[in-house]
Amino acid sequence: xxxxxxxxxxxxxxxxxxxxxxxxxxxxxxxxxxxxxxxxxxxxxxxxxxxxxxxxxxxxxxxxxxxxxxxxxxxxxxxxxxxxxxxxxxxxxxxxxxxxxxxxxxxxxxxxxxxxxxxxxxxxxxxxxxxxxxxxxxxxxxxxxxxxxxxxxxxxxxxxxxxxxxxxxxxxxxxxxxxxxxxxxxxxxxxxxxxxxxxxxxxxxxxxxxxxxxxxxxxxxxxxxxxxxxxxxxxxxxxxxxxxxxxxxxxxxxxxxxxxxxxxxxxxxxxxxxxxxxxxxxxxxxxxxxxxxxxxxxxxxxxxxxxxxxxxxxxxxxxxxxxxxxxxx
Length: 329
Description:
Strand content: 5-15%
Number of domains: 2
Radius of gyration: 20 Å
CATH class of the largest domain: Alpha Beta
CATH topology of the largest domain: Rossmann fold
Number of strands: 8
Helix content: 40-55%
Order of helices and strands: HEHEHEHEHHEHEHEHEH
Largest sheet: 4 strands, parallel
Number of helices: 10
CATH superfamily of the largest domain: Nitrogenase molybdenum iron protein domain
């Protein structure tokens, strides 16, 4: 962890001058910005989609991280730093998800609103981080009911930046929270149809603990909460033994994490005479492709709940809650 912090501080030192110069050069262009739409930069796709939903046409929202990008390892380029410097408001997940950006974001927060929306979730609802004892599990978006707190954080920050848009932000946030509640009910019903003995979710890394708590699944991640952690040979062997002993026949890959360890589990189980298949590809730290249903927050979680349900013997419609999942999801 000391090495990670060293990298973060070095990055912040390099980028601080860039931020200051870009902010200064853009200051004249921002005069009278109250008459224009807000310029917003967000880190992950989940954060950006949520901000865009709440902001509506009162903000232009751009995300730094696209599909299949791992936020645990993401380091901003000069272009990314320019986007951050030019934003009126910056939104990020927080809870140490964007580990390599923490010092940079703290520096930017001395110049403009920088909002960690996942940190709005009540402390007593957050889970511990097995990788870093002084941190908390950042993957709160896996529980739609918890993500409602993040929506409220976005609403309040936008109102603070643009009071004239209060009514629109309030209405849009209420609409999204209602959709999250409907999504949570769908996930609870569909995942609840999985036979109890099959409610074990094995994935590439430990991103689904909030999901497991919400829907009564045991979650086994090959890597830790952060993808910076590596799975050792002993860990792989122990996981193979669990698959065999519990007769687990489906495990899942993630779009933003290498499938190397998942393949090792399948091969290890096969060597012990136990067949394990890939139950599907899940969205963990990144959403689907832009312009697709899975490229929205609602679609991402709908996809995960539907794919897990169907792969583990439960009952869910192939096209998901809203009938919009891609064929074969």
